[in-house]
Write a structure and sequence with these properties.
It is a single chain. This protein is an alpha+beta fold. The protein is built from 3 helices and 10 strands, in the order αβββαββαβββββ.
Length: 184
């Protein structure tokens, strides 16, 4: 199914993912006063949360403390935003951030060895993000990162987010879920 961005928010919401965020689409005009307008931040456009102002410019907002409402997702759909997901509160992502196919395959093998077949989101393969429910009410899973010569693996947790639908800024193609999205 070719998912349009206007239906992606609703689909994720209906799958019970309620911690959604608007993601600034690649190539969007950024408000000149925003930190996102700095030259060193341009590569993050297409991966960072933000909202479109009435002027047509995009800028950041306090996404970390914002909890989405049904009205928000309708507004964000109308803006043409990509769909982001806040992590934490029982949901983490294992971010396989390497373009080295051999390392990406090894990371996939380790993920499957420990967790079987997790939902996987691709944007710039072989990079991948694996979504995982955890029981961490008494002891929240901490963020962690392991860097190596050809990339990194991150455990994205509370205070982090990931893009679940939208256009990847490097490839210009939509993020996708090869095995489909699963209910929360």
């Amino acid at each position: 199914m070719n998912m349009t961005e206007t239906s992606a928010f609703r689909k994720m919401w209906d799958l019970n993912y309620k911690r959604l965020l608007p993601i600034i689409p690649p190539g969007s005009p950024i408000w000149p006063g925003s930190l996102l307008a700095a030259p060193n931040r341009q590569g993050s456009i297409g991966k960072v949360p933000g909202i479109k102002f009435s002027s047509g410019y995009w800028g950041s907002f306090d996404w970390a403390s914002h909890e989405a409402t049904d009205d928000d997702i309708v507004r964000w759909e109308a803006m043409g935003a990509g769909v982001g997901l806040k992590l934490g509160q029982g949901l983490i992502a294992i971010d396989s951030d390497t373009e080295n196919k051999a390392y990406a395959y090894e990371i996939l093998n380790i993920v499957q060895e420990h967790f079987n077949d997790l939902p996987v989101r691709l944007g710039n393969a072989p990079k991948a993000a694996y979504l995982l429910r955890v029981s961490d009410a008494d002891s929240p899973t901490p963020y962690s990162r392991i860097s190596f010569e050809h990339g990194a693996v991150e455990i994205l947790t509370e205070g982090k987010q990931m893009v679940v639908h939208g256009v990847h800024p490097k490839t210009g193609k939509p993020y996708h879920w090869p095995r489909g999205e699963v209910p929360f």
